[in-house]
Amino acid sequence: MDPPQRNVNSRFALESAELVRELRGDDASGEFHRDVSRAFFAERADISKPEIVIPLAERHGVSAAEVEKAWSERRYVWKVDGFIESAQVAGVTGVPAVAWPNRHAIVGMMPPDELVARLR
After folding, report:
1. What percentage of the chain's residues is helix, strand, coil (to nearest 5)?
2. Is the Cβ–Cβ distance between 20 and 29 less than 8 Å?
3. C-alpha closest to that of 39 among 76, 1, 81
4. What digits encode the pLDDT tens for the residues 57-108?
5. What is the Cα–Cα distance from 101 to 95, expressed in whole angstroms?
């Protein structure tokens, strides 16, 4: 992992993930999230750019035209806004982050042993 030196706006990637979920299911959406995370954290790709996100969505069976239409309609804005609000309530202040209902979020990069200890 080669963490980026600055964050980028991931909104369109998140909205695209919801499109992938709607059209291809939860498994495809999870794989899309994994690919976006790998692009951002390991390849330092700017996941705010269509030229990065669209090919990832296409890899998971969603066409560029479908992605662009969903973006122009802002079809999933309400859903992503809800995720962001829930994350803020859980204490998420950065990425990567994981959270479960009624528990504090685990935020930021850390050695695997520390992550496992926090999960316990």
Report:
1. 60, 5, 35
2. yes
3. 1
4. 999 999 999 999 999 999 999 999 998 898 888 778 777 777 777 777 788 8
5. 18
Instruction: Give Dmax over CA atoms of the chain in angstroms.
Output: 44
* Cα-based torsion angle of the residue sequence 76, 97, 9, 29 in order, rounded to the nearest 10 degrees: -40
DSSP string, 57-98: HHHTT--HHHHHHHHHHTTTHHHHHHHHHHHHHHT--SSSEE
CB 110 within 8 A of CB 101: no
Cα(22)–Cα(40) distance, rounded to whole angstroms? 23
> Please, are residues 54 and 36 in contact by the beta-carbon 8 Å criterion?
no
DSSP 60: T
- Amino acid at residue number 42: A
- Check: pTM over 0.85? Answer yes or no: no
